[in-house]
Specification:
alpha+beta, YneQ, 4-stranded antiparallel beta sheet
Length: 101
């Protein structure tokens, strides 16, 4: 279950992803499979080749891309990988809002 973002933020992310940009959205998240994770960042891009190349610089594999039928393919970033990538991408606002206690 996802929460902590509003419709405007979600729509902005979808627009950026759809335009071929690598875009990020972070939200609180609860999933029994990951009991120690409380948020996830989706790094998405409609251009799979561009997303794959972007992911390679962080050691992410193409097969990890969640290829959705709705046109919003993305990597799900969690834990230390998430924090590292958010720092590298200059997304301090995501860190402050969702990762700092």
């Amino acid at each position: 279950m996802a929460f902590g973002v509003n419709r405007k933020e979600l729509n902005a992310w979808k627009e950026r992803v759809g335009s071929g940009e690598v875009a990020f959205i972070t939200h609180f998240w609860v999933d029994e499979r990951f009991p120690n994770i409380r948020c996830v960042t989706k790094a998405g891009c409609a251009d799979i080749d561009r997303l794959t190349l972007w992911g390679k610089k962080y050691g992410l594999k193409e097969e990890w891309i969640h290829k959705r039928n709705d046109g919003f393919p993305h990597f799900d970033l969690m834990g230390e990988t998430q924090l590292h990538i958010l720092k590298e991408e200059g997304l301090q606002d995501h860190i402050k809002r969702f990762l700092e206690k």
